[in-house]
Design a protein that fits this description.
Distance between the termini: 24 Å
CATH topology of the largest domain: TIM Barrel
Largest sheet: 8 strands, parallel
Oligomer: single chain
Number of strands: 15
Radius of gyration: 21 Å
Order of helices and strands: EEEEEHHHEHEHEHEHEHEHHEHHEEE
Strand order of the largest sheet: 5-6-7-8-9-10-11-12
Number of domains: 2
Bound molecules: zinc ion
Strand content: 15-25%
Helix content: 25-40%
Length: 397
């Protein structure tokens, strides 16, 4: 297969591919075999590696019609979801998780990390559904899970041990929901102890609100540095950074950069849940993606919730999420930020291939119709050909 005159964004090029950014790409079997400057330099599309979704919730997607939308109240959504979740059956989890991964696959996603609500020491039913799902999709979409536990539960030492043990057994990542908790340092310290003891990577929901006093992110970075933690740590949301003054936010980002924390921004859910609902919202909840980039921290953009109480709209199309992030954080030129749905999340998830395109890389690619940065945010420009293992995927309409 030959792809002629495709634009490969600079941040997705593995090495110096030569002058310009429009190339002819040859694919043989399952790999890219050659890349050369295009004979015709007028771009006919944009070539990216398959997308990677670093933060999703496939245990509760598509439940908004049952649970209702929370209209800006994160804690109401948590409470309401918990009441309904007690009645959810294994079959219900199977069906909605399968649908989510199927949609992601069709959109060109090659790996997805989901959080699973984990609110008591025992493993949730969703874990068993997830383990079979991971098996079914093996070789198509690489699936990872994170236990999502209220941080306060880690004050109970036996509970923390049970969770960490089960996460390790199922090959997962440990996480917690962190927002202005009492005894923050002590409880987070316990999570770091468990991660060390059980050899687990960490992935937090942190500072998901507009309170400038939320210091979860800073505390996580300080703990990681104090303990010389080398395992990967992802931090999702970090909305409070947006409401802190530049100096304070900058100090936190300096610590995060030093601790090599992977920052994950969730534009759709943060737009919906943060800011006022009784009038036009002025303050919004996007983390400081651009200040992070100045410190060489390249944030990921991920879907987060899809059609549930936390965010009642959306889909698993990461290119659409990307478009929202571009507008929300003024990421221009947009082509320069396509690493936020490819290379950065692949690195955060520790995938075997970082998503940079070069001769020899897997032919797991998405050819977008967009010929330039402007068309990336246009419905026609988002039209795509998904190539998996060197073969064009038939897209269901
Ligand atoms: Zn989330």
């Amino acid at each position: 297969m030959k792809l002629e005159s495709v634009r490969i964004p600079r941040r997705l090029q593995a090495s110096d591919l030569g002058e310009g950014d429009v190339f002819d790409v040859r694919i043989v079997d399952r790999h890219v075999s050659a890349i050369a400057p295009a004979v015709d330099p007028v771009a006919r599309g944009t070539l990216i590696s398959c997308t990677v979704d670093a933060h999703a919730h496939i245990d509760k997607n598509y439940t908004v019609r049952e649970v209702g939308a929370a209209e800006g109240d994160l804690f109401a959504a948590i409470q309401r979801m918990r009441e309904h979740a007690a009645r959810w059956t294994r079959e219900a989890f199977d069906a909605r998780m399968e649908r989510a991964v199927g949609e992601a696959w069709q959109c060109g996603t090659r790996a997805l990390r989901t959080h699973l609500d984990w609110v008591e020491p025992n493993a949730p039913v969703s874990l068993y559904a997830f383990e079979q799902l991971r098996e079914r999709w093996s070789g198509r979409v690489e699936l990872q899970f994170v236990s999502l536990t209220p941080l306060d539960l880690f004050a109970d030492s036996a509970a923390g041990d049970r969770i960490a043990q089960a996460v390790q057994h199922a090959g997962g990542v440990m996480g917690a929901f962190v927002y202005r908790n009492e005894g923050l340092v002590h409880k987070l310290g316990r999570v770091f102890d468990l991660a060390q003891q059980y050899g687990l990577a960490l992935d937090f929901h942190v500072d998901e609100g507009l309170d400038a006093n939320a210091t979860g992110l800073r505390t996580i970075a300080q703990l990681a540095l104090a303990r010389h933690e080398r395992r990967r740590i992802s931090c999702g949301h970090a909305c409070s950074l947006a409401t802190q003054d530049d100096a304070q936010a900058g100090r936190t980002l300096d610590l995060c950069a030093q601790a090599c924390i992977d920052l994950i921004a969730l534009p759709s859910t943060n737009l919906y849940l943060q800011g006022e609902w009784h009038r036009t919202p002025v303050a919004r909840g996007i983390t400081r993606i651009r200040e992070a980039a100045l410190r060489s921290m390249r944030a990921s953009l991920a879907t987060d919730n899809v059609q549930d109480a936390f965010y009642p709209y959306g889909s698993y199309d990461l290119v659409e999420t990307f478009g929202l992030g571009v507008q929300m954080a003024h990421l221009a030129p947009a082509t320069d930020w396509l690493d936020a749905i490819t290379v950065s999340p692949a690195t955060a998830l520790g995938l075997a291939w970082d998503g940079r395109i070069a001769p020899g890389c897997p032919a797991d690619l998405v050819l977008l119709a967009a010929t330039d940065e402007y068309e990336l945010l246009d419905a026609r420009g988002r039209r795509r050909t998904v190539i998996r293992n060197g073969t064009v995927l038939e897209i269901e309409q």
